[in-house]
């Protein structure tokens, strides 16, 4: 099947194109006050987290169709997360509940110096124990886009489940979308992280990375150097490589063109989930038209939309609660262009 004439699943029946997200969903504990270290925090508030799950909710809140596949504990937190997906109209039929392992927890804060600090509790957590025999194969096969990160590559048996799911999606004609979402604290070493992230690099059709991840993956090269990005990170099968630049916007690279799209200026309260909102906004657009990466004007519009999704997310605390609706994004874009 031609990549660009591939499925917009169910279009003939009027169904929306489906984005299926695979990986971790967990509980983030964030300080009740801002700009403190974890040790200084007087208290914590629980919030749903996990990059792939955030992306799935973002797609749904934007009016798209999404599903999440992953594993949580057969505990109160696991049930809570499953219900949150359901409340946001994300298909959670691919979720599994482990009776012997707890739902993953992460304590996260943005310190006064701007550095994000993480502390994870997963030894092992349920998301690490997803098995390929537990995959919802039929759901994966329906995906117009199959999206994932790299955290699910760190440990077995989840790594094998991840690779199996990618294979099923690719064979069924799905576009593969990859956001490494580097969390060094979870990997055995920097070398293991670099090797693990790059091990599936050349299979993706769409990749989103941050500037810091460019520097890390290239062994210290300048993240602003287009030649470095194209020579070391762009591969022949890649349809689109996007570099997120935070409040500045993003850069994009395809086989035919490259450029930069600036972001809307907003008052930042909490950057948690902004990158996931960006990815959700972009995948929402690509799922509706998989040929969008062939037209630079249309791609730039999709990236403006994705930038606005990220910008709106930083104006509120938390990830999922701050993810925007399509109407809010369109209003921001209208205000900016007025």
Overview of the structural elements:
The chain has helices spanning 51-61, 76-87, 137-141, 158-171, 190-198, 211-217, 226-232, 274-288, 296-313, 326-337; strands at residues 18-22, 26-31, 44-49, 65-73, 91-98, 105-110, 116-121, 145-148, 175-178, 206-210, 240-244, 249-253, 258-262. It is of the alpha/beta class. The strands form two sheets. The protein has a nine-stranded mixed beta sheet, with helices on both faces. Strands 3-2-6-7 form a four-stranded mixed beta sheet. Helix 4 (158-171) links the parallel strand 8 and strand 9. Helix 1 (51-61) packs across helix 8, helix 8 packs antiparallel against helix 9 and helix 9 packs across helix 10 (326-337). 48% of the residues are buried. The model is unreliable at 1-5 and 8-15 (pLDDT under 50).
Short overview:
This protein has 10 helices and 13 strands.
Helix content: 25-40%
Question: How are the strands ordered across the major sheet?
Answer: 5-4-1-8-9-10-11-12-13
Kindly report the average pLDDT value: 92
Poorly predicted runs? 1-5, 8-15
Beta strand count: 13
> Which structural class fits the helix and strand makeup?
alpha/beta
Shape: globular
Put simply, the count of helices is 10
N-to-C order of helices and strands: EEEHEHEEEHEHEHEHHEEEHHH
GO cellular component, one term: cytosol
Pathway: Glycan biosynthesis; starch biosynthesis
Domain Carbohydrate kinase PfkB: 17-325
Protein name: fructokinase
């Amino acid at each position: 099947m031609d990549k660009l004439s591939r499925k917009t699943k169910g279009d003939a029946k009027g169904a929306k194109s489906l984005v299926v997200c695979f990986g971790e969903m967990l509980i983030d504990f964030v300080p009740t006050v801002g700009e403190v270290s974890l040790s200084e925090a007087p208290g914590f508030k629980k919030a749903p987290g996990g990059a792939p799950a955030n992306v799935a909710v973002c797609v749904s809140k934007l009016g798209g169709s999404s599903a999440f596949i992953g594993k949580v504990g057969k505990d109160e937190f696991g049930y809570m997360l499953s219900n949150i997906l359901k409340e946001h109209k994300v298909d959670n039929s691919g979720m599994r509940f482990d009776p012997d392992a707890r739902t993953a927890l992460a304590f996260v804060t943005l310190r006064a110096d701007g550095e994000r600090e993480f502390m994870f509790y997963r030894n092992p957590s349920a998301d690490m124990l997803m098995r390929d025999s537990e995959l919802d194969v039929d759901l994966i096969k329906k995906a117009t886009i199959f999206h994932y990160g790299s955290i699910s590559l760190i440990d077995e048996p989840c790594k094998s489940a991840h690779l199996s799911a990618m294979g099923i999606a690719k064979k069924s004609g799905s576009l593969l979308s990859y956001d490494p979402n580097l969390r060094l604290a979870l990997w055995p070493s920097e070398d293991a992280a670099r090797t693990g992230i790059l091990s599936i690099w050349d299979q993706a059709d769409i990749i989103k990375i941050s500037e810091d991840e460019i520097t890390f993956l290239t062994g210290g090269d300048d993240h602003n150097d287009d030649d470095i990005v194209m020579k070391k990170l762009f591969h022949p099968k890649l349809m689109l490589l996007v570099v997120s630049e935070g409040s500045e916007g993003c850069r994009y690279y395809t086989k035919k063109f490259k450029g930069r799209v600036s972001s809307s200026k907003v008052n930042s309260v909490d950057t948690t989930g902004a990158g996931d909102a960006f990815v959700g906004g972009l995948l929402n657009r690509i799922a509706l038209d998989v040929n969008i990466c062939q037209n630079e004007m249309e791609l730039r519009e999709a990236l403006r939309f994705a930038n606005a999704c990220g910008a709106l997310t930083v104006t509120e605390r938390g990830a999922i609660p701050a993810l925007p609706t399509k109407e809010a994004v369109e209003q921001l874009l209208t205000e900016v262009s007025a």
